Amino acid sequence: MFPYTATKVASVSVHYEDPFGSRKIHQSIIQLTTSLNPQNRDLVVLCIGTDRSTGDSLGPLVGTRLTQLKNGGFDVVGTLDKPVHAVNLVEVIEDINTKHRNPFIIAVDACLGKADRVGYINVKPGVLFPGTALKKSLPAVGDLHISGIVNVGGFLEHLVLQNTRLNLVFKMAEVIARGLAGLSR
To answer: Does the residue 6 lie in any domain?
Structure first.
């Protein structure tokens, strides 16, 4: 056998109560951005969701917390003050592409899943399909994505998102924001 180093792109799935959750998310994002962004393109964290629905507020909460943590290595788009949602997503993506030439986008959004996966945060390479739980046809976005499973899917998703506990979403947002904090391009 000849020696070689195999590089494996690390996705991660971590529960928000994991005491090392933010660190695991940060390490995964570092590995993924290093692997997927060798040209060192501008980093943009696109936080998708709305504060009008508790379950769908994960993205704006992450964006707001990131701005409070005073990150300097990337732009944050989508906060509680200026949410990115189904109505303005296309326009926001166009604005990002105008401001940044070929940006590397990390998309953040809430999602629904199985009961035993509620509270898990997933970091994966590739695009995010926002609005899938509500059967919305929105553009795929991101070079890598972070999704937080905020509640159970499968039936009356709109009501489920409306009745998701804010405490869970808030704690998940904190873990994600701390995992993203300190990144640089």
So the answer is: no
Task: Report the predicted TM-score, pTM, of the whole model to 2 decimal places.
Answer: 0.91
Structure token pair of residue 79: 């906060």
Q: What is the pLDDT of residues 101-118, one digit of tens each?
A: 999 999 999 999 999 999
On whether residue 66 sits in a domain, the answer given is: yes
Percentage of the chain surpassing pLDDT 70? 92
Per-residue pLDDT of 104-154, as tens digits, reads 999 999 999 999 999 999 999 999 999 876 677 889 999 999 999 999 988
The CA distance from 31 to 144, in Å, is 11
Asked if residue 7 belongs to a domain, the reply is no
Task: Tell me which residue range forms the domain holding 172.
Answer: 14-180
Type of residue at 3: P
Which CATH number goes with the domain that contains 147? 3.40.50.1450
- CB of 173 within 8 A of CB of 61? yes
- The total domain count for the chain is 1
60 Cβ partners below 8 Å, 6+ apart? 47, 49, 50, 51, 78, 79, 80, 83, 84
Given the structure tokens 């808030």, which residue do they identify? 170
2 within domain boundaries: no
